[in-house]
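Exam revision sheet. Question 4 asks you to relate a sequence to its structure. Input first:
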Amino acid sequence: MATTSSMTRAEEIYQRLRADILNGRHEPGSRLRVEALKDSYGASSGVIREALPRLVGQGLATFAPQRGFRVVTVSPERLQELTEARVFIETHVVRESVAAGTIEWESDLLAAHHHLARTPYFSDDGALSERWLNAHARFHRVLLEGCPNRQLRDIATQLRDAAEVYRCWARTPAEHSHRDVAAEHQMICDHAIARDVPAVVEALSQHINITTQLLLDDYGRHEEKGKQDPGPPFGC
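Answer key, structure tokens:
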């Protein structure tokens, strides 16, 4: 039977791998070799093998016989499918969340939004901040936590995590300047606290679709540049 310390270590490695995939340190489609990861993360092969299937379950990695584990591949078509699924699921879940959310849920949502609003989008080196990624994920998770159906909440979270991989397509300050992300989150939060279901559904739908459109636009620019300067179409 696994000890508490080994389970804690497995959770730590899983969280580090997940953060590194979401922040582009493991590029889409790249191999996740147990031996290499064991050395990089200073963990046993058993701990790595325990973490990798969890990444598959979250839609962040794939597994195939003879090919092993890989970071999930990305494509415009898959992003569009993920977006359609997210809008369909998340708008339903947020309806239930706003309708059933308690005063404690309101407090948690306000706290999550406050944390997100106070967290810088970029780190000192110009990369997308892991602190912002974590605060952003928490805000969207808490937004849906008022929904009493845990299965729906889990599906929504899994789809959002799978879509988050695409953020590596647009990590420049220029992309961020094309929109007011803070205002979008403020609007979503305000409508949720006001229990205005139609308004929060519309705000969340627009938020998801705007993100996708900007990522697709950024991908198109990289593709055009790649035709002129052959090489990887984008970097994470």
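Marking note for examiners. Confidence is low (pLDDT under 50) at residues 229-236.
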